[in-house]
Amino acid sequence: MNAPANLKYTKSDEWFDPASGKTGITDYAQGQLSDIVFVEILVDAGDTIEAGKPIASVESVKASAEIYSPAGGKVAAVNKGLSDKPETLNTDPFGEAWMVQLEGGAAGDVMDAAAYEKYCEERAH
Amino acid sequence: MTYIPISPKERDDMLGTIGVKSLDNLFDAIPAKHRFPKLDLPTALTEMEAADELSGLANANENVRSDLISFLGAGMYNHYIPSVVDHMLRRGEFYTAYTPYQPEISQGTLQAIFEYQSLMSALTGMDVSNASHYDGATAAAEAVNLAYAQFRGKRKKVVVSPTLHPQYRAVIRTYMQGMELEVAGDDPNANLESNPNDLISQVDDNTCIAILQYPDFFGRVYDYTKLIEDVHAKGALVCVVANPTALAMFKTPGSMGADIVVGDGQPLGIPMWYGGPSVGFFTTRKNMVHKMAGRLVGETVDNKSQRAYVLTLTAREQHIKRDRATSNICTNQGLIALGTAVYLSLLGKKGLRQVAELCYQKAHYAAEQLSKIDGMGLCFTEPFFHEFALCVNRPVDEVNAHLLEHGIIGGYDLGQDYPSLKDHMLIAVTEMNTKEEIDTLVEVLSEVANG
Amino acid sequence: MANVSSTLNAKIVEPTIFDLSSPGRTGVTMPASDVPETALPPKELLRSDLPLPELAEVDVVRHYTRLSTFNYSVDTGFYPLGSCTMKYNPKINEDTCRLPGFLFTHPLQPVETVQGNLALMYQLQEWLKEISGFAGVTLQPAAGAHGEFTGVLIMRAYHKSRNDVKRTKMLIPDAAHGTNPASVGMMGMTVVTIPSDERGNVDLKALEAACDDTVVGMMLTNPNTLGLFDEHIEKVIELVHGCGGIMYGDGANLNALLGIVRPGDLGFDVMHFNLHKTFAVPHGGGGPGSGPVGVAAHLVDFLPEPLVGIIEDAEDDLPPLYGFVKPAKSIGRMKAFHGHFGGGLVRAFTYIAMHGPDGLKDISQYAVLNANYLQARLRDTYKVPFDRICMHEFVAEGRFEGSDVRALDIAKRLMDYNFHPPTNYFPLIVHEALMIEPTETENKDTLDAFVDALIKIAEEAKTQPDLLHNAPSTTRFGRMDEVKAARELVLCCWLPENYDENA
Questions:
Q1: How many CB pairs under 8 A join A and C?
Q2: Is the pTM higher than 0.90?
């Protein structure tokens, strides 16, 4: 399982990059959802959002999930190209498939990579 | 009479395996004071008696094949149904099958729905069709749900043309209660002779969708291209409610730029059956397919490299998305959709066009003859398909009572929905109406006019 | 417009109706026009082409007949599909619903000319009231989910009529069908999920904590989706009523209750029926269904319009005159016209008429007998997580200690034994659920053969798990590439690109 050390993680499997303000879903999340076929970003640039509020909706072949913001702040940008290539959420969840970029984002209830890895391992059993 | 194939001995053996004494002991969890109520229902009939009872009820009706001549349409039409349609629907492998959740053993239903989707897309000029809704009215209401979801709840106004079928408008209003959307435009006192483009005055930047009918409720055919363009300029979607028979000859709503085309598939080989079941077709643009409600069949391959079909994008639907789904719908009108597919396959390119032109020709003959009657006249001058509004200059219920005495069901009383159309009836003519029937109608109405 | 299909190289088992098209063929010849010709409207209003297929009648018949043979169906085999009540569909119903008097009546005909239809509908309303213990019934909803939506609209309208507008929460157990929360989502209300206790009942503590004056009501399936009758049903209803909520019954599982208990007597306020489950209306490959709704006395005024009523009483030798009536505070219309009359109501009427009170009770007793028999024979092989006397269905776990076989694999393997699989994606609260509902119309031989197959499959799971992973292997079609379907989204086909109309 992949969880870059520079990111922060939520219990609902989103990541937040304090340096860039970007957010997305984790490798663990994409694995659980399996083949993702649809993504819709629910916020627009300029919106102010709170941590824990829905920012995206994702559908795979078998499941659907609401994605919650790991941080609060002003939306600087959304990944507009993502909806045309939802499969990148499976192939590159921490990179190309970022969802929303926050400006001055304050992380909500998050943990570091080590704690998140442990949290994922616990759920595997 | 029941259909239970367990003998008393088998029953006792099974109770023994379960470890209870009697059938009644299986129900101990049910509160004793309400257990085993005595139902006040008639005693059971045998099959022979039931067949007789049901024949009696059916014969207590006067039907439009053998008892009455009908000029009633208004959303449900008396068309010829080729014999093959029902023969296919009577195949137990089709009608006693479940929803095709197990594609390995449901390819019959799945491919038939895929073909239905293809036929409806071809007919409406749209990219994709779902596997169908309950009827035309609920399909129109689902179009509003789609539009509401498309704008993520930010646009809360629905503009409905006053010339949309009154019952469709009523259903849209019922569906919208929970969301508390504003419904505008469907004023019964609206000027019905105005240009349909005037509807644009109701469309604003809070509008998620405008809904038009084609041909409209009075049978009139307009090219909505300009109106659709103008609604798009305001950022809203357009849904066109279409008559599928008319689409065999008239320009498609798809080619006019509509975002959603829905309608009732009953004219395509489905009996009127006193109002249902019919089938609501729902077609849209490919980019809105993820927001569309209802089942959807897609092409794929199986593990033997055979072309096959599956229910796809199921994560949009209620059983997975639950309270975040666009709609709670979890059936389609499977068997009825199959019926329309068989009908369209049989009639095909030439046959369906022929049916449409027969309707057109006969309706125009009827309109011309009726408008010659003193004191009666056509209400509108625009091109029409197979229905038209006729002014009869006296209460429609009186006119229809007189017609019924002559074995004729007259037109729909437009005054019930539109105060300005008091004393007007909506007359529908299909390929089922012979010249002789039309001439009889003209004759009896002439008597009414002169009496 | 042609879609680029990447299934181009796949083997075609049955061509589509478009593949089979050939220019100039037709399956029907319509009569020539018998009226003087009118000019067609201006060309700008007409379409230039109609890209429909062209086939002769025999080709259409063979095509759809071949397709039908690719289907599993009740007429060809056992369908132990939990929550779906796939019982035998009596053939007489197919005849009665096609009587010309029913087929060829228009929904807007004068009521004097359709007294047979209206008498049937009136009688069916009365029978469903009697069977369920409710004061009013609408036949209009087109399917179970449509009935649910109707019921929730009625609940909302009732609170609104009392100016009780702060109620926005709907209580729904974790075992519920997905339609329940989806119906609530369509209303802009919020769902509060109530857990189940260790015996599969509603957790009373959690329910009590959730009951307050913001509750619209509760939507409960009883027996629930585990096939269990809630042992505290009266207490559950008392709690919901206690906070001013309305009790909604999901009638999906009514096949367990006919002549056994009436939901209205238990205190339910609203319930939808599924005529296509309980009253043997065939499922039609996924519809049409029929979902009448029954309500208690205080909700009758909110029913959809119109209902069938008696508009002139019977007199001497004259029968009553039936017609349409509008409830005083009606929520409005749910669909055009009067519900699924021919396909749903006539068949259900025939079925109820042929059963009578004793026959209806037999249905439920034998449905419950068959389910308990299967449960008793299978519980040593498949774990039954909530193991007590069940109603018309039960849920087992489709997984084994130390094996990677899943419920889905067992389901697919059952097809090789010529059985339709049980429901296996549901209920969510059981891991790898196998939800089994035999119905009352199966004989003991079939039930035994099904048990034998499941026991054999459990053995195979240990000895040859790949048999299950790769199942089905004896059916005409194998497992599908569902990812491909969803990613490539080929949703329709067209006439071939080189189709020459004038050939």
A1: 10
A2: yes
